[in-house]
Amino acid sequence: MSESVQSGVRPGNGVRSGDDVHEHHGGFPVFTPVQAGPNYGEFVESLRRLQDLAVSTHLPDDVVDDAIARVNALSDMLEPHRVSEGKSPAGFNRQLPGRGSLLLLPWLFEKVEVDGIRSRGVFRLFHRGGNSAAHGGTIGLLFDDMLGMIVYASGHPIARTAYLHVNYRQVTPLETELVLEGRVDRVEGRKLFCTAELRDLDGTVLADCEALMIELLPGQP
Ligand SMILES: CCCCCCCCCCCCCCCC(=O)SCCNC(=O)CCNC(=O)[C@H](O)C(C)(C)COP(=O)(O)OP(=O)(O)OC[C@H]1O[C@@H](n2cnc3c(N)ncnc32)[C@H](O)[C@@H]1OP(=O)(O)O
């Protein structure tokens, strides 16, 4: 199999179909994953810490002024290195929490196999919704991103989420290790019906979802 991937997606370990199916479905460009450097994970984690602090501090105005200047200086340093989609290590590095993406929940995959996926991690302070619970939208983000990985691992061509039904069963705590598991339950043509559950370490289901992923047709964005 080539090193090229569509939006970071390629078949799970030698499963199901050949290269053609994966490299010619959908209108995604073919990306070559950008390997993160040795300190990239620490860089992303430093930015997450900054986000945690941004939502959990009450700063004097002069500290805010100083912070604005420093953050702008940092942005000015990064700006000349801007690249187009697919040319940054962000999102392509499965060995890093959140695949090295600041958007994604900083979770790590424990199992990425044809029959399903398991990942583990915490919701951070900056994911707070209210009363120390995770914001419901961030739970949807966790599920939705996992669905992409489920499709990838199961060996199906790239797919998009047609619907994602989330059941919020219990309040989801912040800064507490949790486990997420999901899989493709059944396939009808291009339609992949998936389920996933978010549990605490006692096995209590905090949220679960049912989703329809649809394999993209050639040229579909
Ligand atoms: C090496 C390192 C590894 C890294 C590895 C990374 C891998 C990880 C990548 C992550 C990648 C992100 C993946 C996240 C997933 C998104 O978040 S995607 C973003 C959110 N979703 C979207 O933006 C989708 C927007 N919608 C669309 O583009 C189109 O509606 C769709 C979903 C492509 C479907 O359109 P279509 O192809 O025209 O399909 P259509 O003919 O309408 O329907 C096909 C069938 O599905 C049914 N259907 C369609 N929609 C629905 C619906 N909402 N409800 C029920 N049935 C429906 C139709 O009834 C039809 O059924 P049949 O008649 O065939 O029985």
UniProtKB/TrEMBL annotation:
Its EC number is 3.1.2.2. InterPro entries: HotDog_dom_sf (IPR029069), THEM4/THEM5_acyl-CoA_thioest (IPR052365), Thioestr_dom (IPR006683). It is an enzyme of class 3 (hydrolase). Residues 1-28 are annotated as: Disordered. SUPFAM superfamilies: Thioesterase/thiol ester dehydrase-isomerase (SSF54637). The keyword Hydrolase applies. It catalyses: tetradecanoyl-CoA + H2O = tetradecanoate + CoA + H(+); (9Z)-octadecenoyl-CoA + H2O = (9Z)-octadecenoate + CoA + H(+); dodecanoyl-CoA + H2O = dodecanoate + CoA + H(+); (5Z,8Z,11Z,14Z)-eicosatetraenoyl-CoA + H2O = (5Z,8Z,11Z,14Z)-eicosatetraenoate + CoA + H(+). Residues 17-26 have a biased composition (Basic and acidic residues). Belongs to the THEM4/THEM5 thioesterase family. This is Acyl-coenzyme A thioesterase THEM4. It comes from Rhodococcus parequi. The lineage of its organism: Bacteria, Bacillati, Actinomycetota, Actinomycetes, Mycobacteriales.
